[in-house]
Write a structure and sequence with these properties.
Strand order of the largest sheet: 1-2
Shape: elongated
Number of strands: 2
Distance between the termini: 11 Å
Order of helices and strands: HHHHHEEH
Length: about 230
């Protein structure tokens, strides 16, 4: 009886790939890929290919699973997108409320800026927020009334605020420097991640082709034995 050796290993590999383990974790590169996919499929919405939002999530789900060998459901893709979209809008519209304080960095800011052209739709704040992001808040100088002895009149004295303004100014400068550094780092990481994703995809398809080729050879050998 003819022994097939490596051909049988190829068949086992094919079976393993068809029975992959569950993988539904949203890593940085998978989320970045999700945003890039949304840019593409959003422009196709309403076409024959993507008639509804439901089909959009399904198409994106298939693409992501094929690229990363994952097992996401369309609902996973939709929920992840809504979380990212909501987080970005909150990040964008609350920046004016936190002047002088370091905000938590949003890792997908550059990609979302490209998607919305730097101006996303309004974010709905919780009802208990007292400050609206559309309102420009200006602080008036603090004044106190001081009574002078022997007189019923009072004098308005302005409290110096130059020291406080200087601290706010320095904090704003440091904040802008940090944001610029984060943007440059995020941009570099994004390029690296996308290149790695492309390389992995090429390797994946090459491996699948090799497995298919070995599988075909095995079938040919079996047919030859039948003829003999």
């Amino acid at each position: 009886m003819h022994q097939f050796g490596q051909e049988r290993i190829g068949l086992q590999d094919l079976l393993i790939l068809n029975n992959k383990k569950t993988d539904v974790e949203w890593s940085l590169d998978r989320t970045q890929y999700l945003i890039d996919l949304y840019k593409i499929y959003r422009n196709k919405l309403g076409s024959v290919e993507v008639k509804t939002m439901k089909k959009l999530w399904c198409a994106m789900c298939v693409d992501i699973n094929q690229t990363f060998n994952t097992t996401f459901a369309p609902s996973n893709v939709e929920n992840r997108w809504r979380v990212i979209d909501r987080s970005y809008k909150k990040f964008f519209y609350t920046k004016d409320l936190e002047t002088g304080r370091m905000r938590k960095a949003f890792p997908y800011k550059e990609a979302m800026d490209e998607l919305y052209g730097g101006r996303p739709p309004p974010y709905n704040h919780p009802q208990n927020w007292k400050v609206n992001y559309t309102t420009n808040v200006t602080k008036e100088p603090v004044s106190t009334s001081v009574s002078t002895p022997g007189s019923s009149s009072t004098k308005a004295v302005n409290t110096p605020s130059s020291s406080k303004d200087a601290n706010v100014s320095n904090s704003s400068i440091n904040y802008k420097d940090n944001i610029l550094e984060i943007k440059q780092t995020t941009k570099t990481k994004r390029k690296t991640v996308l290149q790695a994703m492309r390389d992995d995809k090429v390797k994946h398809y090459k491996r699948m082709e090799d497995i298919q080729e070995r599988f075909n050879k095995q079938i040919i050998e079996i047919e030859k034995e039948k003829l003999e």
